[in-house]
Input
Amino acid sequence: RLRLRLPPEPAGLPLVGHLHLFRKPLHRTLARLAARHGAVFLLRLGSRRVAVVVSSAPAAEECLGAHDVAFAGRPRLPSAGILSYGWSTMGTAAYGPYWRHVRRVAVTEILSAHRVRQFAGAHAREARAMARRLCRAASRQRHGDGAAAGRVRVELKSRLFELLMNTMMAMICDKTYYGGDDDEVSEEARWFREMVEETMALSGASTVWDFLPAALRWLDVGGVGRRLWRLREGRTRFLQGLIDDQRKEMEHDGDGDGSELPAAAARPRSMIGVLLSVQRQDPEECPDQLISSLCISSLEAGTDTSADTIEWAMSLLLNNPDVMRKARDEIDAFIGQPVRLLEADDLPKLQYLRCIIMETLRLYPPAPLLVPHESSSDCTVAGFHIPRGTMLLVNTFDIHRDPHVWDEPTSFIPERFEDGRSEGKMAIPFGMGRRKCPAENLGMQMVGLGLGTMIQCFEWERVGEELVDMTEGSGLTMPKKVPLEAFYQPRQPVRLLEASDLTKLQYLQCIIMETLRLYPPAPLLVPHEASTDCSVAGFHIPRGTMLLVNTFAIHRDPQVWHEPTSFILERFENGRSEGKMAIPFGMGRRKCPAENLGMQMVGLALGTMIQCFEWERVGEELVDMTEGSGLTMPKEVPLQAFYQPREPVSGLPESPARLAHRRRRQPLPLVVAAQTGAAHAHAAR
Ligand code: HEM
Output
């Protein structure tokens, strides 16, 4: 009898057991019960037998380390049974050969390090699309109804949810459903959004429904059961549609019949695409049902967890502006010049950003009780007997704040994760053991890019003097109770060159002046004609004589100009060439009347091209500088160059589809580049 000592349990009620103690948020209630009853205690949950709650690192280590296999099962919650097709998703499946198979396919095919790197493009693209949406909103506010330029208020929770939904769907099927102009929402997108909303609504309602006695569930008072079934049907149709579309697309690309076209093979594939390729090799290994279930697992387990983490991290940073500044300095210093946006490859080098994410996950683990496990055999934890079939809740929230392990456990101190300083301490936001989250790398990449891009692109401020409310809400994951709102302002350099900048850009002016000295567009000015006799340099010039002034030669006079054929900008710096004759616009009465206009047009076009693109010669050789002939002085050989769009932090007008195209380097006649620059500037304005 002594050997089978069960863990202590609070006083319960008949029928409901301890369900009446379930105050929200649950992890806080369980932490309070642990303080009274110890780190391992039992609960009776309505019709279910028991749950053991574990709230200390050693006990968690015992359950998920020593007894990993025994606790590798999952309880069969009725709602999950409906939505996960009889517990057939990875997160709900019983421990056994089927789960092993699903997990192996996921880990090797869609969550491997290689695949996570491949998805990095989609992650960065969506993070930037969100940054662009915020920029557009800021610019709309600036230009609309006379609002003052500057900071804009934003409700971040929904933006982050959209970001993560888009990121997940981009990965799953190369489609996104949020963020377009609202009046352009497609039927498919509307349907998808409704499905997502119903899933969220039901995830709350089904928690209680799961623990009702079977008879009450059967009567389906409140209609939760019916809604679950309706949602399941909607999801099935939606996912099968995605799979069928992708299959058709692959067949069309020649990817479905074994005759792979190079273009199709080189295309980074979506999760569904990858899984369909596996299916083609071996239909039994990866049937459509498995593909659907992996998509559902990813959406359910990956979206809220990652979105909540970024929202908590942003809240912590708003309450700790010094940490925000340090993170931004790290990003700026690492990126250096020219400015470009954060990429997935940068993340491993941004140690401080990583520490911020780890510290956020310590304080606010998105799954504070992990996902319920269930024991498949009797075992002993902390000296207590735990019978087979017991549900296990591991209170990581409580474990991560254990004052015996963590100094100032409730304070936000990212430095505690610097240089492996917290190694050996139990921080398990992704769980541990066989059921550990299989997508830690993927999650860290999505969170890193989302959070990093927000820190890099915007200045953030709290909406008031008070600190951001950090109360936890309740749900399957751990959302913030009060959705985060903040002021933001796009950071510099965020705008494209404007005419008013030109006078301050001395170096750009020097470039233009030196170009006009070497290559005056009117090398002989425009012919003049003498209307009276006169004398020039002691010579008689009769009335009616045409006058050609060779500015080309004058500008290259070695008596006046040092190294006259060299391109030396400094000679125009600080008025150094004042008094020397540089007259690209002519002089006197017939002088070009539009010098200012010309300088502005050239300045804006050239400046925008320099600002927006990286330029390179098309070959090793220098650009041929021979002059052609004509009234003005064109280049004899039209200029071609390689260009690559730079990424000024924001204000970029492209759609995500065009973004993919932007990476390509291509030679193009400069005249096209000039149009591109102008279009760019126009669109941004
Ligand atoms: C910050 C991001 C994330 C966090 C903190 C997180 C955390 C967790 C945790 C705590 C568990 C339960 C572990 C346990 O029961 O012991 C879990 C399971 C799981 N996670 Fe994640 N997760 C994240 C992102 C993702 C993403 C992006 C995906 C998929 C694309 C994903 C897929 C899964 C799946 C399928 C399971 C169930 C594994 C199983 O039962 O075998 N997670 N995650």
User: Anything to note?
Assistant: The longest helix spans residues 288-319. Residues 90-91, 103, 297-298, 301-302, 305-306, 309, 361, 366-367, 370-371, 373, 429-431, 435-439, 442-443, 447 surround protoporphyrin IX containing FE (CB under 6 Å). The CA atoms of residues 335 and 621 lie 30 Å apart. Confidence is low (pLDDT under 50) at residues 257-266, 649-685.
